[in-house]
Every structure is written in structure tokens, then in C-alpha cells.
Amino acid sequence: MELESVTGGNPVVLLHGWPGLPSDYRALTPLLPGARVLIPTLAGFGTGYTRPIDTADATADSYARRLLSELDAHGVTSGVTIVGYDIGSRIAQSALRADPGRFIGAVLTPVYPGIGERAGAAEYAERFWYQHFHRTPLAAEFIDGDENNVASYLDWVWKQWSGPDAPQRHPHRDELIAAYRRPGAFHASIQWYTANRGYSGALPPIHTPTTILWPDADPLFPPTWADRIPEFFSTARTHFVAGCGHFLPVENPAALANAILHHTTA
After folding, report:
1. What pLDDT does residue 117 have?
2. Contact (CB, 8 A) for 118 and 164
3. CB crowding 88-116: b at 16 or more within 10 Å, else e
4. How many domains are contained in the chain?
5. What's the CA gap between 254 and 125, in Å, rounded?
């Protein structure tokens, strides 16, 4: 795991989702004047793919441990605001539980234990089937290393998960496809789904002041699933982002910037 650093003051760590890249935050960083922005390149995801990744190394806790070690190497040991969406949200939560004293705030988008077993309900099978598909050998066999199939699949994900006001194609589509089309890269990225199953668990609450941004047009996570946030975050405020789909940093970077600045300038 490597950190791309944009020099500045208060440290802000930005964790991307699947399928994503550090460039998911390209439009956000100019909106954080005075912050020291740190964007990890997550091993096994897109540009972070250099070799196959073991399932044991693909857990949220493993990513969090590597992140904390990398932050130590950069001398970033306190005053950190951590930000994550999709898988980045789960990694951030693991880091917050492992080393709460390092962080002064968190900004997260849907994916938290309170979603529980609801994502596995029959009525949501047409939305979450991809997770089961990713755990089969067929996913890599059909898609990995085939540029056309990678492009078609990532285009489908964008169209299905983005909101009504999003552009027809991912703004960094060519960059995204180039990163995930390399032989082995797609397969490595979906190891996450074998290593991290479900959204539930008996986890202790996070006490770091947290802002939950919940896109109201996210087809994967309906706003009603925000009902259990107080069980898992003792100091959290929830804001619903109108007209936004799953890819919040790409679709509405201004909403994300405002939430981050709430923590870094408090």
C-alpha cells in the first residue's frame, strides 16, 4: 500500500471503493484547501495491482493494518480525518476501531454493520448478485484480462449504481479500464468479496465523531437502512445526499468536501 500525498496542513486520508482508483477523488482535492490529503493506492485494486493477493490479505482488517503502518511511516500519527466510500468505508471503520486515538473525525458513505442481513434478502438479489458472482471462479474466467469484457462490466456497474444526474460514462472511464484490464488485476480486486462476507457483525461502536453521507439514489443501499447507525457510531450525524448514487466522490465531490471540512476545521 502506497500513499499519494498532496502537501498541506491537517491530514485527510481518502479511501476509494470498488471498482475504483485514487483518481476517484481528483475533483475533491481542490476543494480541501489547507489540508494534507493522503490517498492510498490499495493493493490489489486497479493501479494497486502488482501481484496476486491472498484472501487473508484482502480483509478489511488487513487493509486497515497496512494503512496504519503506512501512516506511521509518513509520520501521520494524530489529528487525522479518514474518509471512505464502498470498500473504503469498511477499511476506514476497521482503522477507526484499531487505532481510535489517531483520528479526529470520519466521513463515511453506506456500508456499515447495521445493514446486517438485509442485503441478503431475496428482494435484493437482483442488486447484490454480483457479490456472489465475484466469489466464483467464473468471474475471473469470464472477465479477467479481457479488455472488452472488463470495459463492458465496469460500464454496467457505473450505469447501474450511479445516480440520475451522473454522466452516462464514468468521468475517468479510460483510466479505470486501463487499470483493471491487466491480466490478474480484476481477479485480485474481487478477492475482497471472498475475504469480506456480509455487512453484519458484533462489533464495538466507533466513538470518533463521524459524518455519514447517505446518497438517496444509491440502488444498493436504500436510505431506510440508515436506521441502526446509532448502534455502531456513538457520535454520528447522518446527511442524505439528494440525487446522488453510489459513487459519491465522483458524483458530488462538493457534498463530500463540506462534510470533511466540518471535521478538519472544527
Report:
1. 85
2. no
3. bbbbbbbbbbebeebbbbbbbbbbbbbbe
4. 1
5. 32
pLDDT recorded at residue 7: 58
Place of cell 459513487: 247
Instruction: Please give the backbone phi and psi of residue 40, each rounded to the nearest 5 degrees, phi first.
Output: -65, 140
DSSP string, the chain: -EEEEE--SEEEEEE--TT--GGGGTTTGGG-TTEEEEEEE-TTSGGG-SS---GGGGSHHHHHHHHHHHHHHTT--SSEEEEE-THHHHHHHHHHHH-GGGEEEEEE-S--GGGBGGGGSGGGHHHHHHHHHHTSHHHHHHHTT-HHHHHHHHHHHHHHHS-TTS-SS-TTHHHHHHHHSSTTHHHHHTHHHHHS--B----PPB-S-EEEEEETT-SSS-GGGGGGHHHHBSSEEEEEETT--S-HHHH-HHHHHHHHHHHHT-
Q: pLDDT tens-digit profile of 173-187? A: 999 999 999 999 999
Let me know if 160 is exposed, middle or buried by CB neighbors in 10 A (0-12, 13-18, 19+).
Answer: middle
In angstroms, rounded to a whole number, what is the distance separating the alpha carbons of residues 251 and 266?
A: 25
What gap in Å lies between CA 30 and CA 33, rounded to an integer? 6
CATH of the domain at 83: 3.40.50.1820
- Which residue matches cell numbers 486515538? 101
- Tell me the pTM: 0.95
pLDDT digits (tens, 9 = 90+) for 45-78: 999 999 999 999 999 999 999 999 999 999 999 9
Cell 447517505 sits on residue: 214
C-alpha cell at 142: 469470464
Backbone angles phi, psi at 233, to 5 degrees: -135, 115
Query: To the nearest whole percent, how much of the chain has pLDDT over 90?
Result: 89
